[in-house]
Amino acid sequence: MSPDPIARLVALLARLPGLGDKSASRLVYFLLRGSPDYARELGRAIAELPDQVLRCGQCQDLGASDPCRICADPERDRTLLMVVEEPHDVRALERAQSFRGLYHVLHGTLSPLLGRGPEQLTLDALWRRLKKGEVKEVILALNPHVEGDATAVYLAEQLQGLPVKVSRLARGIPVGGDLEYLDSGSLNQAIRGRRQMGE
């Protein structure tokens, strides 16, 4: 007997972050009630995702091209580099429409408990970018939680001695909050109110 396709999809969806069995079940039944064409299109988009998404060789963001559209944009201020934890943080900051510099995505934070040290982050690519001498300010836009704070302190220490100003987003961001969930107004205020590290 073949496995139950509903139960199989519920189990797969429930493994996604933020979804449990109940939410996954609701999604599956939503798909079954809706248009079969929508379900097929969604399936194709998911199946094609690994082959169509590239990592930008400059900023390490994920997108449809290398270099990404932000790194390729000649209108961006190349003297400002905002360091973020994850690709979804770039999307959140771009929605705020108040930052016109470039980004660098770490793909995580330092977390000794999870076995994530500096070598698990994209720090080599960051150091290569900074050695070119174009960047004048590094803005640490890391989420205000224990791992984000520890990573910010580590980066600030590593950047000492380089001819760059190191700042951090203002603390208008709630402790424990994630950039991707903040409204544009809060992000704008945090960018404008950034402070130099060590102040």
Distinctive features:
199 residues, alpha/beta, Helicase, Ruva Protein, domain 3, Dna Topoisomerase Vi A Subunit, Chain: A, domain 2, 2 domains, five-stranded mixed beta sheet, two-stranded antiparallel sheet, 14% strand
Structural features, described:
The model has no long low-confidence stretch (mean pLDDT 90). It contains eight helices and seven strands, in the order H-H-H-E-E-H-E-H-E-H-E-H-E-H-E. It is elongated. It has two domains: 5-52, Orthogonal Bundle (Helicase, Ruva Protein, domain 3); 74-196, Dna Topoisomerase Vi A Subunit, Chain: A, domain 2 (3-Layer(aba) Sandwich), CATH 3.40.1360.10. The N and C termini lie far apart (66 Å). Helices cover 43% and strands 14% of the residues. It has a five-stranded mixed sheet with strand order 4-3-5-6-7. The protein is of the alpha/beta class and 199 residues long. Strand 3 (77-84), helix 5 and strand 4 (101-105) form a beta-alpha-beta unit.
Give the helices and strands, then pairings.
Layout: H1 5-14, H2 21-33, H3 36-52, E1 54-55, E2 62-63, H4 69-72, E3 77-84, H5 87-96, E4 101-105, H6 123-131, E5 137-141, H7 146-159, E6 165-168, H8 184-192, E7 195-196
Parallel strand pairs: 3-4, 3-5, 5-6
Antiparallel strand pairs: 1-2, 6-7
Helix pairs in contact: 1-2, 5-8
